[in-house]
Structures are given as C-alpha cells and as structure tokens.
Design brief:
Layout (H helix, E strand, L loop, with lengths): L6 H8 L6 H12 L5 H9 L3 H8 L7 H11 L3 H15 L17
Length: about 110
C-alpha cells in the first residue's frame, strides 16, 4: 500500500458498512502511520494505553465528544468529522436510525 494513502480514501474503497470511530482510528493508524503497532501508536502518538486503543479500534468502547476532538487535533484531522462519527456511533448503539449533520456556524448570543 502506498505511503501516501489517506485513511478516509482507504475506507471509502474497502468498506460497505457504516463507518465507526474505531474503524476510522484503526485505518488512520494502518495507512497514515504506515502500519504502526497499536502499542507505539497508543503510547507515542495518542497518549493512551494500548488496551484503550484496542478497545476503541474494535468498537468495544466508545469515546466522548471531547476525546474525539482531542484525538482529531493530535492526528491533524477534521474535528467536525470525528465528532460526527462518534455521535453516529452513539445513535447506532442505541438503535436510533438518525443521521447527524454538524454545522460549523457558531451560535450567537441571544
């Protein structure tokens, strides 16, 4: 696989099911970080334990919206996209067939 493959392009081409936050993180690790091990990626890049990363990648445990924003910043990814995926995961886990659309416009004070 090419060193310059973007994770989202890889996912787009190889997955026919809803994108989960775990799949997103795993594919970023495997593509943009050139098959970096979970241990190295967790400790040196994300600052979390290998066990926590494994739980995230395998969709055993989710992350909060705040953690999604933090990870997006660390990985140089779009915060809105990460938050959208985390919120979609939350809805899916609660059997709610809703779609999330996050607007970048800030709310102005009333």
């Amino acid at each position: 696989m090419s060193k310059n493959v973007r994770a989202i392009d890889f996912l787009d081409a190889h997955i026919n099911q809803p994108l989960t936050f775990g799949a997103l993180i795993k594919n970023i690790r495997l593509t943009e970080y050139e098959n970096m091990t979970q241990h190295t990626f967790a400790s040196e890049v994300l600052g979390i334990s290998k066990t926590r990363l494994s739980d995230i990648e395998n969709d055993r445990k989710g992350v909060t919206i705040g953690k999604a924003i933090e990870l997006a910043k660390i990985l140089g990814q779009n915060k809105r996209f990460f938050v959208t995926i985390v919120m979609q995961d939350m809805l899916r886990k609660n059997n709610l067939d809703y779609s999330i659309n996050i607007d970048d416009n800030k709310l102005s004070p009333a």
